Amino acid sequence: MKIQKAAVIGAGVMGAAIAAQLANAGIPVMLLDIVLPDNPDRNFLAKSGVQRALKARPAAFMDPARAALIQVGNLEDDLKKLKDADWIIEAIIEKLDAKRDLWARVEAVAKKTAIISSNSSGIPMHLQIEGRGEDFQRRFVGAHFFNPPRYLHLLEVIPTPKTDPAIVKTFSEFAETTLGKGIVVANDVPGFVANRIGVYGIVRAMDHMQRAGLTPAQVDQLTGPALGRASSATFRTADLSGLDIIYHVANDLGKATPDDEDFTLTPAFRALVEEKKWLGDKTGSGFYKKTKDEKGKTKILNLNLDTFEYEDQGKVKVAAVDAVKGQPLAARVKALYAAEGKEGEFLRGVMNDGFWYAAKMAGNVSNRLQDIDNALKWGFGWEQGPFETMDTLGVQTVIANLEAEGRTLPPLLAAMKASGRDAFYQNGEIVTPEGQSTAYEAPYFILTDLKKDATKIIKKRAGASVIDLGDGVLLAEWHAKMNALGEDQLRTVQDAHKLVQDMGYHGLVIGNQGENFSAGANLPLILSQAQADEWDELDDMIKQFQQVTTSLRFSPHPTVAAPFGLTLGGGAEFTLHADHVVASAELYMGLVEVGVGLIPGGGGTKEMLLRFTDQQQPSQRLGATLLPAVQRAFELIGTAKVSTSALEARNLGFLRDTDTVAMNKNHILQDAKRQVLALAPGYVQPTPRQDIPVMGDAAIGAIKSALHGMHQGGYITDYDLVVSEQLAKVLSGGTGNNRTAKVSEQHLLDLEREAFLTLLGKKGTQQRIEHMLKTGKPLRN
């Protein structure tokens, strides 16, 4: 069974976005919807769905050109075309009769090997296929995406008792590898996993908020990043999801679950939906409301639940949150759980509800504890799931607090109490829903999970480690805040190179399991050294940085970079120099140094010039014909362009056509390891180039002329001009050449270093760095 063509039925928000994700993965897809009786365009709804996806922000498509893979149609004229689809998924209205009617029509035309799925968020899968043939039921499996499908990692795969296990395996592998999703196999019960537990948490948070006398904005401070959860926290998430959706899901779950699972909505929430019709972002008003001030600037107003008036409460500060700023997640969680006053009372109430309910659901919504943790992490943006959080606090501490509140322990927690065990994850094992220990299994088809296995560390520093990936491949892994690049990270790469050679490994992967590959250099360190006039030390540091980045290409063994997320500045320069790149599809890569008044100093400027000149025909690598390559590199670096996906990174030139794009971030380390093993036999160490053509003064003159016009037109500032002229000097190969010359890579690296230090010594650059560190935004001085 292979899924090479797909069909999506229903071109609403979810259906169109699912089709876009299939197209992102390179899968041709049909998008079908009903025919509107009064519209002459019989495919209007499907066409509108594609256009909506193209305009969506954040973008649904990784590359707008991928929309060409979507063929639109309608359910009257084109239903027969479903015979070509290997996978058919519906995303129509959440009504059981409508879905049953659709499946009767689909069964008549679908080929006998097609996998059939529903994206329903709540209607049990087994009810949808009643009356269908045995073969259809065998090939039917729920596939519940979370919105937006491109960005939310979770996909709940929901087999029915009739689903063939081989179908579950085939579909899960396709969804994880090709679509890039995180798979949680859920039981076919009300709410499945994420919504069952997530909506319970939202409902209980509303109740505890009003008991504690807090506001929605205060609760969102308490239940957001401080607690290791998404910045949208509780009530901003509710607005984004739609208060009507939460209202209906909570009511349905309340009817379908036992009385002790309290999904009762507060009177205030019911009033928002039933009386006010304030449904969140879709109506413009919910717990928050966007408005414009007199200057046209967007302002967020907060809902006062006592008066139902929107108020400008300014920047909401919460003492318990302020007290834990800057602390690691474990320390923050422990401090917040033990906080005093009404803030602590609220947090303990909400967290204990979540712990109790997650334990109660173990073995009910899914058969593995890590599925519950992963569902909350991948579907709601939590850093830790409920069982991982209990491990942080100590399971016995949580049990004692639950008993102090007079709660009856669920069987899982009763078994943990009896065993005395204080963690669900421990020594490569995990507890089963029945309270027994078993070997920990990484999420279904992920081949490695280094966060759960620290036994493979070969050498460790505070901000980086060398890890044995097995089969003769080492990993240089960074684990600092935002993976900013400093001495630990550079020395660890050097350590790894030496270990590869001394211990006979095949090669090296550069990657990590953080939130981002690397946000760039350690700016506070660079600024402090510049302000202390430590220029010799800075010169040595930049030389070392260049040596380490270029060592990825000029080592006697293959190196493969595995970038993902933010891959900026120095992180991009490491990536550019690897023999091969296995990039996550969600790659936000760019050489952004001009934003802080610098230019790339670790070989990035050199590398982009080299790549773009090499892409020209040999006859274009002479004289003025080189100028398009120089201008392309100048524009890319000078505008600090950052890709919005790996596909765009390839279009921009950051990735080569031979580099690999993996849809699933969790697979890139294993894919990178395989690339090392593929390159290792017969690997020949490259030598630095000596033949890079440059234009000298001719290029500088052309770029300065363009810059002058931009400056006169007010498009760039005085200091933009200063930075840009230094960039032009490097890309031209230096001054003094009035004709095309050929220079070495080292020559360009020396020019980079000189320009970097020159700019770092200027007040304008130091002001830009200070402003970025204080505000997180660039300064236009």
From TrEMBL:
Keyword annotations of the record: NAD, Oxidoreductase
One Pfam family it belongs to: 3HCDH_N
Protein's UniProt keywords contain Kinase: no
Every 3-hydroxyacyl-CoA dehydrogenase C-terminal domain range: 191-289
Domain of life: Bacteria
Catalytic activity: a (3S)-3-hydroxyacyl-CoA + NAD(+) = a 3-oxoacyl-CoA + NADH + H(+)
Domain 3-hydroxyacyl-CoA dehydrogenase NAD binding: 5-188
One GO MF term attached to the UniProt entry: (3S)-3-hydroxyacyl-CoA dehydrogenase (NAD+) activity
Residues of the Enoyl-CoA hydratase/isomerase domain: 480-605
Swiss-Prot/TrEMBL GO biological process terms: fatty acid beta-oxidation
Protein's recorded name: 3-hydroxyacyl-CoA dehydrogenase
Annotated organism of origin: Deinococcus xianganensis
